[in-house]
Amino acid sequence: MNAGQGFIESYRELDVWRRGREIVKSAYRLTATFPDHERFGLTAQIRKAATSIPANIAGGSGRHYSAEFIQFLRKANGSLAQLETHLHVSTDLGYLAQQEAGGLLDETQILGKQILSLERSLNRKKASSERRPANG
Length: 136
What we know:
The chain is mainly α. The protein has a domain at 36-118: 23S rRNA-intervening sequence (de novo design (two linked rop proteins)), CATH 1.20.1440. The protein is built from four helices and no strands. The chain has helices at residues 15-31, 42-61, 66-92, 98-131. Helix 2 (42-61) packs antiparallel against helix 3 and helix 3 (66-92) runs antiparallel to helix 4 (98-131). The chain is elongated, with a radius of gyration of 17 Å. The relative contact order is 0.16.
């Protein structure tokens, strides 16, 4: 369901949250092959950035105001950018093949566009509710 089409009962209905969870699974699979000495380095950073994406989406959807949800979507987008950077660094260091990282990077690009679309939808909703008279 798209948030712009109606009332969302749960973050679990949001495509951005579902895609975020898929990205988490991919990130965990990819980092499983990293060297042991990176367990508290890049492995942890990639996993933390990835899990932060759907967590922020879920956290924001539970807020009462669109402006708060938008702030959480921006945090999710920031985590997405961190994840992309960590993936590029991982290929630079030879921990991931370009092709392995490429599939996940493609997914992050799609999710980034979806998050931006949801943010714009919420901004339109917020703007239209601000234009309505207080008593009707």
